[in-house]
Amino acid sequence: MSRPVTDGGREMIATKHPLDPMIRAERLPNIWCPGCGIGIVLAAYVNALTKSTKPHEKNVCISGIGCTGRIAGYLNLDTYHTTHGRAIPFATGMAVAKPDLEVFVIAGDGDISTIGGNHLIHAARRNVDINVIMVNNFNYGMTGGQHGATTPLNARTHTSPYGNVESPFNVPYLVSAAGASFVARWTALHVIQVTKAIKRMMEIKGFAFLEVLSPCPPTYGEYNGYPAALDMMKHFRERSVVDNGADLSTVSVATGADDRIVVGNFVDRKRPSYDELLTELQARTGKKSGALTEA
Amino acid sequence: MRRSGEVKVSATTTINKKNTSSGALKPGTYFMMGNFACVEAAIMAGCRFYAGYPITPSSEIFERACVRFPEVGGSAIEMEDEVASAAALIGASYAGSKAMTATSGPGFSLMMENIGLAFITEAPLVIVNVQRAGPSTGIPTLVGQGDMMQARWGSHGDLETIAYSPSSVQEFFDLTITAFNTAERFRTPVFVMADQVIGMMWERLKIPSIEGVEVLQRKVMDAKTRAKPFDYANDFIPMPIVGTGTNINVDSLTHDYRGYPSTDYTVSESMIGHLLGKIRRHAEEIWKWDGYLLDDAEELVVAYGSTARSALAAVKQARANGIKAGLLRLITPWPFPDAIIERYSRRVHNIVVPELNYGQIVHPVRENAQCPVIGINRAPGALMDPTTIVDALEVVAN
Ligand code: SF4
């Protein structure tokens, strides 16, 4: 990465960044709009990776399709840019076949909770040992701003021009009910908390889920009162309430000027993971493999 | 040992031979259902990952995989739908596993999206389709051959696919092993297009000794030589396996030699050229067919799957009726063995193509034949009656 910095009015060019080895720097600049929050999530993940106890090559990032879906391709890891909504089952197959990996799925809200919503709840139910970061920008950004399963009621998008008449998913509540071992929500403003949550996800055995609310100035922001790069960030700063013990049935997100945004590490519990149960099953059946042989 | 009449038909139906240390069944002669034979072949081919969703008439494959895979250190996972099954196979394939699923028409339709992903990312895997009557839900558990064109053209964009079509339990076993080998060699999804009759039929099955079975493994990329992970000048590119330090981006977008997304026309041209060309340039090595009374045949039947069994009976009957009929049985409908059809079509007066659909494989036959080609098409839901084929041969021969 190279970027201009100022030093007493003189412009300097920084030719190196400490995180360069984690990034495919030759692919920069990235495709994201000014003011987008996805880059913040990328940086938080990379920062967490530097603290990972796993060998570097065991960290894998899988993404779906959309703006957030481009995260994987910028990381200097084994990365997979898959089909829309299918990153979670792709990750499931990979993690089950090779349990020593630390698998992250990083994708958008449309990808994870709308077209991929069924995969999301089933992965949480199975408690498969993967980590999912859902960057929620409240709409489909890459296709120009359409509503999805996370778009707040009454919000305006190109496919809800008169206001959205659908109620959104409260995704942490959904994923928690489905059985995930870890569930958190932060915003792109909460860089430290996001990074810490990702580090915790690396330790969790089982399904770990993090929602990161993110500004999308040109589409969602433009039509819903947050058109400038920092508008939504200011809103996050003013309206976020940290409540780790929140009743998840009450943490639905809306973006009206007076709406509260409840954030926190909501769920951190021990449940047997799919991988643990499968290993135990293999040990049990492997021992009696002769049992099938008698007529 | 149970007498055959007492055999309980379930995935856990016992087998009267000891397993070998590899987990594969001991060599010998068995009486087995086609769907079970498929699983035993997969184990022998080294498959240790199954992701599936139940659907008749393929369910016995999944059920038996759930019994057998954990015994051999593998895993069989039940996904939430066939979209997820196909996606999971690609993930497992990139984890270095030989991976498979089995389905029927409705599930095959749902897999089309990720069949495209497997194709563009060059992920070897095997999908078995035990075809039933369609369209839509059709007649579950009655035979059909309506998915043959879907196996070729079902996923959007330009694909070149490989499909095997077994006509017996033994062949279902043999071709399942071949399908894994072909997938590994070409780094591409391979289909075994069985049908309900072949899947659910019980027949004698000879299981060979594992030492005598050719089992291919994909070329794997060395982390140190990763400079050109998608070297399109090379038909067979080593596969980067996750977790081995290759640091490769594997992309569903059109990608360049580094694996990076690109909108450059020359990249599109070279990537597609590679994906199609690696199969087209080696099609003759993939083709398999079988002939019966071809030498002096004047009227040729081209058939595949369970319909080929009816066709064999029909050819014998036609010969008894004084018609010089022969059978060309297609074992690899895809890539289509065009030169084979062309060659035999020059020696005969007519070709008839019986299918349990309203005209699918008849089209590439007609495209390549130098003689008249007549389709014999029947609604799915019942085996092709040999008399129907004999009647057609009588008409064309006279
Ligand atoms: S459209 Fe929105 S989510 Fe997409 S890059 Fe731009 S700001 Fe980010």
Please name the CATH topology of the largest domain in chain B: Rossmann fold
Give the CATH level 1 class of the largest domain in chain B: Alpha Beta
Number of strands of chain A: 10
| CATH homologous superfamily classification of chain A | Thiamin diphosphate (ThDP)-binding fold, Pyr/PP domains
- SSE order of chain A in H/E notation? EEHEEHEHHEHEHEHHEEH
Largest sheet of chain B: 7 strands, mixed
CATH class bucket of chain A: Alpha Beta
Question: Unreliable runs of chain A, pLDDT <50, ≥5 residues?
Answer: 289-295
Q: How many domains, in number, for the residues of chain A?
A: 1
Largest sheet of chain A: 8 strands, mixed
**Oligomeric composition of the shown chains:** heterodimer
User: What are the bound molecules?
Assistant: iron/sulfur cluster
Let me know the CATH homologous superfamily of the largest domain in chain B.
Thiamin diphosphate (ThDP)-binding fold, Pyr/PP domains
DSSP strand tally of chain B: 15
- The value of Rg of chain A in angstroms is 20 Å
Number of helices of chain A: 9
Overall, the morphology of chain B is globular
Supply the number of structural domains of chain B.
Answer: 2
Distance between the termini of chain B: 53 Å
